[in-house]
Amino acid sequence: MSMNSTIYVGVWTNWSQGAIMGSTLTLSAQHGTILISVLTLFIRLIGGRTWGIICFIAHQLRTTKEAKDGLYHQQQATLRNNASDIQTLWQLTKISWSWRPKTSNSIRKSLGLIVFGTIHLLLFAAAGTFSSHLVTLGNEVLLSRSPSCGPWAMPTVSNESQLAEGANYELYSQNTIALSSQYVSNCLTQLESSSACNTFRQAQLNWTSMTEAPCPFEDDLCLGPANSSLRLDTGLIDSRDDLGINGDDAHRVQYRKTATCVPITTEGYFENGTNSFSNGLTYNYTAAFYGPNNVLPSELEDSGGIPNATYVHSNFMETVLRYDSDQVSGIPYYTVSAEPGYFGDPSDGFTPLPAFKAENQTIALVFASFVGAYTGPSDDLWLSAHRLGNAKIEFDGNDSLSLPEYRIDKPVSVLACTEQHQFCNPNPASNLSNRCTPFLSLDNYLNDGSDPISPLLYNDYQSIIAKIIHFAVLRSGIYPIVSQLNPPIMAAGLAAGGVSPPLPDNQWVLEATNWFSIGLNNLQRMMVDVATGPPGKDAHYTTGLADQFPSLQWYCDNQIVQREDFLSFNVLALALIFVFGALVTVVSLFLESIVGFFQLKFKRGLYHQVRWQLDSTVQLQRMAFEEAGLGTWSGGADDVPVTEKDEKFGPATEWDEWHPSICGKAIVKHEASWI
To answer: How far apart are CA 489 and CA 477, in angstroms?
Structure first.
């Protein structure tokens, strides 16, 4: 993702969750942490209010005119004067424990209150602890529109500035594929958890593979047993749920890609010989004839001077001297080159022979050679090595050691892959008979005047999504991946000093699946890069491009990615918590008054109202002082009783340490004067 991307902070709709459930608030990580802390505190306050309501209801339900023991009255006083659930639980536990010698089943009589209080305590403790999980939606964020939003395409070079742009574009394209390769290696293969692995809406686009697919060409072209080709299939990739293009159902597009790979025979299609340049320099070559190359015409001298060849390989690597091969950077012992084939398009790639059955599919031929040696034989169909030789290892002095080595069976081997693409409208109009295009090659979508995509779509938003997917797919196929990946195959990482361990029998399968996986990640990366624009100094190439296209502006406003330095919250969950909390607070403040009003109005439960009043701490204190003859009290039916003005008394002026009481001495309010 480009470094010139910014994140939208505020409320937006995540259409994957719907218009209501998808309402989302995005904040920076710092502000999001503050919101979570406030939410945790608020939930704890709600817990205190709900416990007060529960204690009021429990007190009223338990109130009776029947004579009860001291345990009951202390329980009622505890419920009336609750401070918090944990404090009430502790007090009830102490009460039940202390009354064991005096009242039968004292613990059982308190058990219901204790269990209910424990449930309340645990419930709100969990709610406070996991409040962030209740409302956060992870790190999904919406990109703000970048001034450089838009697709950067390879320019047509006709002047010096376009030449510079073309060079910069090639470098950008190579870097993009390198980043995709690193992502696949680090995040998908090694399962790292770095921030670079939390970038796209989906960490990985799902795909399936099978190694028992039929040969996609004429049977005598494929190597190996029948039905042993590799078939890879993405299934339907959703523009919103998988690629992160935010929009309602009417704005979605689905895309599917399939690829079939198999090593193919070189018998009857290869020619070996010797050729020379006009300067007299000669070389040995191996030429492949699977169809004439339209981009690099093989009849040209620098392309081999051999008419109608698809690819020409020279023996230049065999002439490298040890001075070069021993350098720290090493030399590419593997030579890998890809050539794309497009049926019926003489302007690009090569034109495949009829044996390839290339109509409606793109073909990539991957040619590979290895000038090094393996320490053991390789039965891989693509990079087979059984030519036994001897490697002489010299030591200090005159000692030497001869070891067996294995060379590749052919100067050049070929792995062929086909690719097909399909676009679908997940919500087609009722008058459409098909919601998907047939499986086609990319050049069908580019050059077919019938335009198979547009009839399926019914708004500009779907059209721009389909165009950008096509733009990204064009740069994420097997041919561009192999052509720009360094090194192009994983086997190259096993070779050191021209020596490699033997390859597994399914090395060609591993290579093809790796290219496919890199291509899918590059598709994700390109979709985001269109929204952000090219990075750094290249941003100016697309600056202002979206200003000309409202649908492109919409696209750039609706790209979802992941960022670990931002947090997103579910607005509905936040609203429900705060509304519920406000409602609980209002109920807790006015519940006593409302219940008391109806008790007076209907003349029912008046005793319950009186008991609630008398069991309060200050009323219990008043009654105790009155019984001790301390103070002249008024307001016995109010929330807070008071004494006469300026009246003072000192309780517990004398006490028994084993049975303290409040008996004290009243202080006269007005003393008589002797004068």
So the answer is: 15
Q: Are residues 574 and 624 in the same domain?
A: no
Closest CA to 45 of 99, 103, 84, 100: 84
pLDDT digits (tens, 9 = 90+) for 547-558: 989 999 999 999
pLDDT interval class at 672 (50, 70, 90): very low
CA 469/CA 244 separation, integer angstroms: 12
Going by C-alpha positions, the residue among 507, 480, 482, 481 that lies closest to residue 495 is 507
Give the pLDDT confidence of 321-340 residue by residue, as tens digits: 555 555 444 567 899 999 99
**Domain shared by 592 and 628, yes or no:** no
Domain end call among 410, 441, 475: 410
Please check whether residue 15 is in contact with residue 246, taking contact to mean a CB–CB distance below 8 angstroms: yes
d(CA 531, CA 392): 57
Question: Are residues 640 and 591 part of one domain?
Answer: no
The angle that helices 507-532 and 160-183 make with each other, rounded to 10 degrees, is 120
Cα–chain-centroid distance for residue 208? 20
Provide the token pair at 429: 């109009």
In a domain, 291, yes or no: yes
Say if residue 95's pLDDT is above 90: no
The parent domain of residue 621 ranges over 616-667
In degrees rounded to 5, what are phi and psi of residue 11? -95, 130
Domain count, the chain: 3
| Percent composition of the chain: helix, strand, coil (DSSP 3-state, to 5) | 40, 20, 40
Q: Which helix (H) or strand (E) holds 114?
A: helix 106-129
Instruction: Count the neighbouring beta carbons within 10 Å of the beta carbon of residue 119.
Output: 11
Identify the DSSP state of 633: E
CB 359 within 8 A of CB 344: yes
Q: Locate 259 and state its tokens.
A: 């690829």
Q: What is the pLDDT of residues 470-494, one digit of tens each?
A: 999 999 999 999 999 999 999 999 9
Q: Is the Cβ–Cβ distance between 559 and 141 less than 8 Å?
A: no
How many residues does the structure list for the chain? 675
With 0-12 / 13-18 / 19 or more C-beta atoms within 10 angstroms meaning exposed / middle / buried, residue 189 is exposed
- Structural element, H or E, at residue 312: strand 311-314
> Which of 308, 216, 314 minimizes the C-alpha distance to 264?
216
Statement: the pTM of the whole predicted model exceeds 0.70: yes
Which DSSP helix (H) or strand (E) runs through 424? strand 413-424
Pair of tokens at residue 314: 């020279």
- pLDDT in the model for residue 358: 77
pLDDT digits (tens, 9 = 90+) for 49-76: 999 999 999 989 888 888 888 888 888 8
Can you tell me the distance from the alpha carbon of 339 to that of 170, in angstroms, rounded to the nearest whole number?
18
Residue 29 in any domain: the answer is yes
